[in-house]
Amino acid sequence: MRFLTVIMAAALASCSADTDPATQEQTGAAANVDREAASSVNDYVDNFSLLDHEGRAHELYYYDDAPAIAIMIQGNGCPIVRNAWSDYSAVRDQFAGKGVEFYMLNANRQDKRSTIAEEAENFSYDIPILNDETQLVAEALGVTRTAEVLVISPSDWSIIYRGPVNDRLGYGQQRAEASEHYLADALNAAITGEEIETRIRRSKGCIVNLPEAAKRAEHAAISYSETIAPLLAKNCANCHEEGGIAPWAMTDYSMIEGFAPMIREVVRTKRMPPWSADPHVGTFTNARGLSVAEKQTLVHWIEAGAPRGDGPDPLAARVSDATQWPLGEPDLIIDAPAFDVPASGIVDYQFPTVLNPMGEDVWVRAVTVVPGDKTVVHHALVGSSEKVTKPGEGDYQDVFDNYLIGFVPGAESYIYPEDTGVFVKAGGEFRFQMHYTTSGRATTDNTRLGLYFHKTPPKFPLRQQVALNIALGIEPNAADHKEQAYFEFDNPATIYMLFPHSHYRGKSSVFDVVYPDGREETILSVPDYDFNWQHTYSLAEPLEVPKGAKLIHRTIYDNSARNLANPDPDRTVPWGLQSHDEMLYGSFMFRWTAETADNVVHDPLQFGIRQFYGFADKDMDGKLARSEMPGGLARSWDKGDLKAVDKDGDGALSFAEFYGMRKAQMKRRQSSR
Ligand code: HEC
């Protein structure tokens, strides 16, 4: 019976929205609220993070020092939005340089990112259009029609104006010129701190279909026992459990109920579950993240008061499956030397090594790193080497001689792709690169490495490489500094895994492939890079690329003061290992497609030079012009020492010319030994 009333009320509500808007016009200055009373004029707008139609991330609260944020509700095919755009963009231009942020927001069920991008192209919307796929933001903002503009004041995150841009547009009719400029007036008031006379005005536009908004009362019937608890158990509880890496455990309903508003926030801002890939680009075997429907269910349940309802509590009954070795007992365990981590301050990278106790060659098929103290091990990279370093001689690059795994919280194991393995020769040593962050409490770390071997050699050797730029430099206060580096494959290759890495100023990262025919494809996009979560992205479908293909790693850095993680916006930031410096570091695992364990095509010299060309060759034409040569090389060039190397005399060093030079140098060195 109760439901029936609710549905009736909802039906009536949508009827009234359909009635002739002319009868609902603003009646006079005395009323400061339009007759179609929206409830949310003073409402506090909770933070959210949304991707726009080009896949870029935008978080509302990032702009907490802006005088105002304007958001126009957009919908494809709505004539009023199309018509209002010229006025909206004129206001944006009028306020250029005043710090106001302008957006559109699309919450239409029928529109997708690709069709929104088409509409933007066709109607020249050169503005980020936030794609509210779950409709959760539009519901909370009380959106009813497109072409309505919301003005949010970051001083208290209230909506200070909602209504049309001006009085020019009607249904099927329009004035030649607007006589009232509501949006501009509201923005001026926001800047000067004056009161806005009429804060809510009736907007003309197309009705946005938000079916769940009318079903609020039904959301209280979402079952904790049958729906919510299983959803949390599947997506959250293996970190949020006793002894897990998360700061609180999902032990039963009371914990969930207590954290419910916080859960709503982390879902709306995409902080949890931790996973940073754009869901519209590529698929990954280790993907986390809630589906659109799961987010809606979870948030609607919380907005309905997070009711317990009937039934057992699956979280209370949940048994943790956490063991020290999630892949089972390893074939070989290596204990890194114990390390004392102080309570505070910055700890330099540590490069401990451990002799390889194995008397025979092995092929590794999987690796696990178990940090000794989860609160301080920021990351651990591990590799092996046939050589043995003297104590204190290790260097951060050594782990890449024969790379095994990069451990970061939440990704402790790596099972290599089928039929592949990493070869570890008898003797030599295992090398660690340990990055510790202090936690406020002194502790001793005993990190362990577990290795799992193939019983018979696998078909293919797995390899690791990095597209990096050790020559980067990020200007002070730059909010959008771009860096890129590439790796060109000299043989057909199969790519398995991608790992974008930067530090506190990293904002977004992509991996693109450029094929020899010029075709370009994005294979991973991380629109909202989070230094705290160093994810590895394992491609669900390994990607085969031909000889001559380039894998490009691009990262955008935010060195502005708005980036809360930024330790010093006034600094020009160089490459460096510590987090206050920066890295452009796009690591990937792959195999040479034609290489097998007994037919090695790998050429370490070529490999190394390709890495260098990948950042020195800025215009990616495969050769180094004088302007692209780093210091030492440029000096030799200017002295004329490289005349003979530039065989074709084109005034630049092609990869082949440089490679030939280094090969000859190596030969000479070998014969002089
Ligand atoms: C991979 C491990 C992991 C998973 C999976 C995970 N969390 Fe978390 N969660 C953490 C960690 C670690 C923190 C501490 C804050 C941080 O590091 O971001 C955290 C913090 C939180 C917080 C507190 C927010 C804060 O930092 O103040 C909430 C709420 C939360 N998680 C909810 C969830 C929900 C809901 C899910 C599933 C949908 C989930 N988490 C999945 C690891 C995880």
What is shown here, in short?
The chain is of the alpha+beta class and 673 residues long. Helix content is 21%, strand content 25%. Strands 8, 11, 14, 15, 18 and 19 form a 6-stranded mixed sheet that branches.
Structure report:
This protein is an alpha+beta fold and 673 residues long. It has 5 domains: 2-212, Glutaredoxin (3-Layer(aba) Sandwich), CATH 3.40.30; 222-317, no CATH class; 332-458, Copper type II, ascorbate-dependent monooxygenase, N-terminal domain (Jelly Rolls); 464-620, Jelly Rolls (Sandwich), CATH 2.60.120; 631-673, no CATH class. It is 21% helix and 25% strand. The strands form 9 sheets. Strands 8, 11, 14, 15, 18 and 19 form a 6-stranded mixed sheet that branches. A 5-stranded mixed sheet has the order 5-4-3-6-7. α2 links the parallel β3 (69-74) and β4 (101-106). α6 (224-235) crosses α8 (292-303) and α7 crosses α8. The longest helix is centred in the last third of the chain and has 18 residues, at 655-672. It is globular. The chain starts with a helix and ends with a helix. Residues 1-42 have low confidence and may be disordered.
